[in-house]
Amino acid sequence: MAHKPRSEMIAETRAKLIAAARAAFGTVGYADASMDDFTAAAGLTRGALYHHFGDKKGLLQAVIAQIDAEMNERLRIVMQKAPTRWQGFIDESIAYIEMALEPEIQRIVLRDGPAVLGDPTSWPSQNACLRDMTENLRLLAEEGTIVATDPEATAQLIIGATLNASLWIAKAPDPEVTSKKAIQATKALLEGLLVASSSPRIEGGSPNIRGI
């Protein structure tokens, strides 16, 4: 039987460690997850973990990167299904906030992630998010849907607002109630970007005080 290429073996080892760690972090949390337990569950050793990820913190980064990629793909699909670019922008923003109710995202990305890795705005994934939102806002302004503001500055503010909403939900005593409050407030804030003459109302949004 032919041996697998080294690159394939490395990818398989990494995938096993990430899957085992993700299950452990998602059930008992980062602090209580035993490296010996999840390396054994993957049929590997601590040495393999150190070789591929450096340490437990490096493995958490890899797990969060995987979850983040999945979240981005889900958000991309949400945006594509929308009838207009504006509605897609709204749907994507709300869908991101709603993800804070999912136990795995809540525990790994929104609780343990910031506690171990620091400020989420400094994570590599935020750079791609900022670029995409900046471009989207630029196009919305060009088509006359939203007011002309600096797209990067506006993207920074919106990303900060939705990220903080997600962190608020994850730590709230009643995440469901907090999520509804956050979504309502986010819709009201985003409506403020609309050009008065375009008036594409946000589905389920609050009455617009600008008469849009």
From TrEMBL:
InterPro entries cross-referenced by the UniProt entry: Homeodomain-like_sf (IPR009057), HTH-type_TetR-like_transc_reg (IPR050109), HTH_TetR (IPR001647), Rv0078-like_C (IPR049484)
Keyword DNA-binding applies: yes
Pfam families: TetR_C_41, TetR_N
Alphabetized UniProt keyword annotations: DNA-binding
GO function term, MF aspect, one: DNA-binding transcription factor activity
DNA-binding residues: 34-53
Signal peptide boundaries: none
Gene3D superfamilies for the chain: Tetracycline Repressor, domain 2
Record domain HTH tetR-type: where: 11-71
Protein's name in the database: TetR family transcriptional regulator
Species of origin: Phyllobacterium phragmitis
